[in-house]
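[step 3/7] fold_predict: job queued, chain A
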Amino acid sequence: MKTYLGVDLGTTSLKIVIAQAGRIIDSETRTYPSSHPKEGWSEQNPGDWLAAFSDVLAALRLRNDLSSAAGISFCGQMHGLVLLDEQDEVIRPAILWNDNRTTAECAYLNDVVGRDRLVEWTGNIAFTGFTAPKVLWVRSNEPEHFRRIGKIMLPKDYLVYMLSGVFASDVSDCSGTLYFDVDRRRWSEPMLHLLGITATQLPEVHESFHAIGSVRPALASSTGLSATTKVIVGGGDQAVGAVGTGTVGDGRMCISLGTSGVVFVSSAAYRRIPSGSMHSFCHANGGYHVMGVMLAAGGSLNWWANDILHADDYRTLMDECGAAAAEALFFLPYISGERSPINDPKARGSFHGLSVLHHRGDMTRAVIEGVCFGLRDCLDAIAAAGLSSDSARVIGGGAKSDVWMQMLSDVLGIRLSRVEVTEGGAVGAVLLAMTGCGEYENVDVACTAIVKDTQVFVPDAARHQAYADKFKKYKALYEATKAL
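[step 4/7] structure written:
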């Protein structure tokens, strides 16, 4: 049987999976460091990604015949700024999605250029994580680097370029740059002019399932891949992860309970959101999607468990949480500020309503409830844009907890399910590779064939009503405290 490789370039590690018929048969991972030269800065050396890529392929080659791979595709961390000069040398470390140095640039874009113009030109407003503010920062603070720019890339595109020699990107990843016209699926000329860059410095844009070339002969011989192995460009991590969960087709929804929290709804048509409260991006299946992102979902629980409680037994914590009563105790999960839908980097987390009667289990439950309410806030904003669903597939570390899954189902009032897939991004990349190589007619057909539900959680009507009442107080609490 044909094999396919899926590459997941994450923030902390690179993983490659080998799959047959959409099922993972082997995988390997390598980690790499981030650097934080100043508070709020986050950078990585693209050479570390390439080294990890080579090391993982070398390890897999010991156990597998990589030359039989029909295709390889990519899932990449989004928004990062990778700059190469005319000789294809990296100019400076990549500025990552979680870098917050561009507060002033975002204020300029949103308040001076104007949110209405940004939404008209790109479909979105500016956030510190996006790529365009990073370009402005380099232009203002490192003009010597800005003048040297020959190519501007996103993280996964660097690996695609090194592997194939083709300067290419895809619509889903480009959607997060803020210099891409999401509606028309092309670079935004007004934004390029504003940033002082040209289309010749940017990659050719493809659909995520397009084969853009093959493995360069020199790399084929050194990695064990074949020069006939097709390179499928792949996409940004959220869109490709959604493919891995089968979240394609109009109105399909997935929720990610990772460090951040994501509510992702697939759409056949472009949805313009004038407020910019939600991200409106191109999907990896050829359509579009609307996405809400909260910054500290699992991150809130990790902070509470590790930094405050110094607990290493999450199972005990979740058992305590499951036994605790849903009293009038609240947690605002804004410990890193917040993105969707309030878009308030100055928002701060808090407990409210504490009394001597509350114990650790109550507080743990309040943390998880707060995250669920944050996701409900995103879901309501997406519904206001005309997209809704009565069910969702859930992935991420939080999806492993029955307590959390049931609580989220009760808060949202919808049916939730786990899927067989445990590596959404890598599996999504495999499905894109299979589609790009002609194994399936399109991405939606591939998802239907491969992705299946496992356990299902159904909301309890009484608990859902109780949570609906509590959610109103949660919303009022943020409004009451944001000026403090």
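[step 5/7] annotate
The longest helix spans residues 360-384.
The mean pLDDT is 94.
exit 0
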